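call fold(seq) -> tokens
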Amino acid sequence: MSTMRAVGLTRYLPISDPDSLLDVVLPIPEPGPHDLRVRVEAVSVNPVDTKLRAPKAGFELAPRVLGFDAAGVVDAVGAEVGGFAPGDRVYYAGSITRPGSNAQFQLVDARIAARMPATLGFAEAAALPLTAITAWELLFDRFGLDPDGASAGRTLLALGAGGGLGSILLQLARRAGLVVVATASRPESRAWCLRHGAHHVLDHREPLLAQLRALGHQGVDCVANLVDTDGYWQACCELVNPQGWIGLVVGSKRELPLEPLKNKSAGVVWEFMFTRSMFGTADMAEQGGLLARVAALVDAGELRTTLTETLAPINAENLRRAHERLESGRMLGKLVLAGWPSPP
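ret:
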């Protein structure tokens, strides 16, 4: 039986514990009918990774492999896969219901993968899939905005826009012709938001509505809350325009009162990019098509990678460092791990 390197967990521990993520050896998986087997070359780390690894009771009998964003080379294809062949360079965000990307070989449904941008290396490409899918679906599927300019002039506020998700959402919104307002507090995160497409940046430590009105806006058509659903709920209700939308990506720990939105006829929508793969929806292939569109925009120079730092190689020590950085809440853009340790 052929084996591969991977990083997994058996217990859910604080990231400061050296046993929170472990170097392991696992069997190389065999692809199912719709699968690509990908030789993983680079992975990026997202908040969902840290949340799934966070301390809790229980343990895993076999190592659980986390990780979603990946870029690599197709090694084998399932019997019903079309449009891909061994040797293709691909990128994708995987499924929350299957073993993750922190392994030398991973299985991914071909319908949610795409050829990576030809102008990017593996590390630059691995920074994009999960956040690009989330941002695209939120803006253009959930809010119903047009990616190519038909919604130009509509206003968008992105709360917590300095991270990986905000970094690509700002670019997509600016390209779509929206008036883009972001929130940040540190000088470096403020400058980052402006470089990635924001027209204006508000200080989230100060009342937001007063700052928005000082710019000449009484509210915004869409609020994308990328950071704290509970903490910003009241502000979102105040900031959204009549018949506007509030979009949420972070889970809530309490019931959210909807009454403040009644007179505005405003709507609330959740965005969870794993929905299509988790439920096997009839439109699963939309994600592969979406990633192909993003790759084309990158290659045309209309979007750019959000990679800010690369660690090498992919191993438990570096993944613990990456999780610790994300949990600090001070990351700008995306942190990627690339390459595997040389054989002993």
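The chain has two domains: 3-128+276-338, 132-270.
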